[in-house]
Amino acid sequence: MSNWFESVYKDVYRGLIMDDRWKLYLEGTGITLSLAAVACLMGIVIGVFVAVCKYYGTRRNASPVWRTAAKLCDVYTTVIRGTPIVLQLLIIYSLTVWTKGTYACMLGFGINSGAYISEIFRSGINSIDIGQMEAGRSLGLSEGTTMMRIILPQAIKNVLPALFNEFIALVKETSVAGYIAVRDVTKVASSIKGTYFVSSPLYIAAVIYLVLVLFLTFLQKRLERRLARSDRG
After folding, report:
1. DSSP of 101-121, one letter per residue?
2. In terms of pTM, does the model score above 0.85?
3. pLDDT tens-digit profile of 107-140?
4. How far apart are CA 184 and CA 188, in angstroms?
5. Residues 72-96: pLDDT tens digits?
6. How far is residue 182's CA from residue 100's CA, in Å, rounded to a whole number?
7. Exposure pattern of 110-125 as b/e (b: 16+ CB <10 Å)?
8. Residue 87 DSSP class
9. What does the CA dihedral 161, 167, 169, 173 come to, rounded to 10 degrees?
10. CA 12: distance to chain centroid?
């Protein structure tokens, strides 16, 4: 048993402590969170635009422009949700050889996330009573102003927990960023493992992801409780 513990200690020491390799994991964690945060923000912008296009484009009296926009958005969500994220990253990286892999990753994950967030926002918009739109119009507000000032703020509040879930999912999905040479947590662990022939880096990376997800889940539950109290108030 003592030999086993000694072997594990040496493995962890070589994979985490020796030559300050923990700093590499720290840098990788920063890149992982940066990728997820930027991609989520980009996904929100894309998602709101797509959701609004589908909202207006699927109404009975929709104009040809809105109908066309809604169909193009349907194609976008179908293609993005129907193909693997790894292939999307590789394609975007090959099309953006002029930029760094990190930026290509942010763009790729942002476009991918936008397809899923658009459905979140679409359900959020549809959850708002149609009377809210009619009330805004009766007050003299334009349709666009009513959407921006009345409908979307309520929809955003309703979908905040789902958006947090998407961010948590993005944190884990960025583990494939290493396919285009981005040194996130997984890539750092894989590099150390391959260079020094130790297995501990993979377990260390798993613990880092687990801690991040647990912390973000804790924040999500706090947010949900606060939203529930504000609704009751």
Report:
1. HHHHHHHHHHHHHHHHHHHHH
2. yes
3. 999 999 999 999 999 988 888 887 777 777 777 7
4. 6
5. 999 999 999 999 999 999 999 988 7
6. 9
7. bbbbbbbbbbbbbebb
8. H
9. 170
10. 31
